[in-house]
Amino acid sequence: MSTELLIKNGRVIDPANGIDKKCDLLIVDGLIAELGKIEKSAQNVIDATGKLVTPGLIDIHVHFREPGDEEEETIASGSAAAVAAGFTSVVCMPNTNPPIENETDVEYIHRKGRQARKTHVYTMGVITKKREGVELAEMGFMAEAGAVGFTDDGNGVQNPAVMLRALKYAAMFDVVIAQHCQDDNFAGQGVMNAGLHSTILGLPGADALAEEAMLWRDIQLVKKTNVRYHAQHISTAGAVELIRAARKDSLPITCEVTPHHLLLTEDCCAEVDTNYKVNPPLRTAKDIEALKEAIAEGLIDALATDHAPHLQSEKELEFLTAPFGIASLECALGLYVKALVEPGILDWPGLIKLMTEKPAKIIGVDKGTLGKGKQGDVTIINPNAEYEIDVNKFRSKSRNCPYNGWKVTGKVEKTIVGGEIRFGA
Predict the structure, then answer these.
(1) Helices (H), strands (E): how many in the chain?
(2) Other CB atoms within 10 Å distance of the CB of residue 8
(3) CA–CA distance from 300 to each of 23, 40, 256, 332 (Å)?
(4) Which of 183, 301, 306, 377 is catalytic?
(5) What is the rounded distance in angstroms from the CA atom of residue 88 to the CA atom of residue 355?
(6) Which pLDDT value is given to residue 1?
(7) CATH topology of domain 4-52+375-423
(8) Are 99 and 67 in contact (CB under 8 A)?
(9) What is the pLDDT of residue 278?
(10) What does the pLDDT read at residue 41?
(11) Cα angle for residues 205, 129, 144 (degrees, 5° grid)
């Protein structure tokens, strides 16, 4: 017997198909069956009056810490956080302990994701063994096992010859190489942006050149290879200019930005609260302005959280030794609304495009659309609901989030994965 789920009277936004209208959506046996005015009855009906009905949101940059640091997050807890945030697909970063560097590791992540039965869990594999930047990992085997890309996230690949080999090798499997753009010669031991606050506090700063120098170098390598390349969590005005120039040259380069690099500046570090310690570091108001202009211009391809959970005991260490990262998955949508929709930089269709269609294209998965026959991954959003972020209600295991108490607008009401309501039932 077939299963049916009918979503009635919602504002359906499907940027991949140019749809933005009030209509109904029918999911049959887990697949999108019909979109329009649907008069027939169904086993299960959701009244979405006044709500947005969108393709399931996609986050291509999360850290679920498994294997190795399950006390901070597991694939199960991270998946629960993801569906509560409206994400029907996530991509785990491979800088676990041990890192994801062979086909067995990739299969492990996918199996744990299926067992959690919440969101679709994908993973990238490392570019180099142990993320040491010396010897290429088993990229071919990992691609065959379903890895959607490769990155040494947390580390930039310092050796340009190694990066060139990685790009050439990735071309054989048509997968994306994603880079944490950080030249360690410029970054050094920096724990915040190199600037006024790092000087006053006497803490080592990471210069913006660390990001820009590596991005510039990699663009030259992409010019040589014409291989798909993705710049992770760009944070500086200089990086925006480099991306803009690369686009003019029609290079296959994409990039992402995070909520914290759109909402928070280095000024937040003045009180040495380690919840503001991230990598790349919080930059200046000028950098935020440049990132937002780039989004308005269409230079940015994806909004990604870089969800990085940590234990409270770790974040209570001094700023110099505390780990980098913010746990922001569960409040991401509201943060993007605050950063981009409320100021008029993007409208809702523009925002949804950067959280569905374009991320799906970067990782090469058949998601991010409500087209007929596609998997029934849907997010239902109340665009007018205001709520207060409360980290104590997070489904994530970690609470290292500087947004506690913030009031945001745009609340996920239901998350549907493969035609099944996984959140908000």
Answers:
(1) 14, 18
(2) 17
(3) 30, 41, 6, 17
(4) 306
(5) 11
(6) 63
(7) Urease, subunit C; domain 1 (2.30.40)
(8) no
(9) 98
(10) 86
(11) 120
H or E segment and range at residue 390? none
**8 A C-beta contact, residue 234 and residue 240:** yes
Note the pLDDT of residue 42. 86
Q: What is the pLDDT of residue 135?
A: 97
pTM for this predicted structure: 0.97
pLDDT of 302:
98
Q: What residues of the chain score a pLDDT lower than 50?
A: none
Q: Work out the angle at residue 367's Cα, subtended by the Cα atoms of residues 366 and 369, and round it to the nearest 5 degrees.
A: 115
Could you tell me which of 182, 130, 188 has the C-alpha nearest to residue 157?
Answer: 182
End-to-end alpha carbon distance in the chain: 22
Q: Report how far apart, in Å, the C-alpha atoms of 246 and of each of 118, 231, 242, 253 are.
A: 37, 12, 6, 7
Q: Which fold has domain 56-363?
A: TIM Barrel (3.20.20)
Burial of residue 43 (CB within 10 Å: 0-12, 13-18, 19+) is exposed
Tokens of 121: 């869990």
pLDDT of residue 425: 60
Is 306 assigned a catalytic role? yes
> Locate tokens 């108490």: which residue?
405
Same CATH fold assignment for domains 4-52+375-423 and 56-363: no
Give residue limits of the domains in the chain: 4-52+375-423, 56-363
In terms of Cβ atoms closer than 10 Å to its own Cβ (0-12, 13-18, 19+), residue 202 is exposed
What distance in Å separates the CA atoms of residue 362 and residue 182, rounded to the nearest whole number? 21
